[in-house]
Design brief:
single chain, 132 residues, alpha+beta, Glutaredoxin, five-stranded mixed beta sheet, 5 helices, globular, thioredoxin-disulfide reductase (NADPH) activity
Length: 132
């Protein structure tokens, strides 16, 4: 599964903002792929081999720090990141670009089309980030 993560400082208003810009893109994606989390199919979804996108809000926490360190992300917030774990790569929304419903939806669409500038998560990158 490939998560989309929006990194934030963790203030309540920032979390609400993240949810407000991620939710429409997630809803569109889930509708287009006939994914219904309120149905009994949820167990089937997570037990099958298919990969579906996950949308996460990453607040400034130890877990977010681990992800940032793992892939060598700058400590810039807010930051929209697509992490493609199965393919060991990630993409970052252009720094300075306004994060809106439209820009998030465009980012998700480009991710699905493989039309983003991806950065590989290599052993060297992981080792280098662990030594910093």
């Amino acid at each position: 599964m490939s998560p989309k993560q929006l990194e934030l400082d963790g203030e309540e208003t920032e979390v609400q903002f993240a949810e407000s810009v991620l939710t429409p893109a997630a809803d569109n994606y889930y509708t287009a792929h006939n994914i219904n989390f309120s149905s009994a199919q949820e167990d089937v979804l997570f037990s099958c081999e298919d990969s579906f996108l996950q949308f996460l809000v990453g607040i400034d926490s130890e877990t977010s720090d681990i992800v940032r360190d793992l892939i060598g992300l700058d400590d810039v917030m807010p930051l929209l990141v697509a992490i493609d774990l199965p393919n060991r790569r990630f993409a970052i929304m252009e720094y300075g670009m306004e994060i809106t419903n439209e820009s998030v939806t465009d980012f998700v669409t480009k991710f699905q089309r493989n039309d983003l500038k991806f950065i590989n998560i290599t052993e060297e990158r992981v080792e280098a980030s662990g030594n910093s």
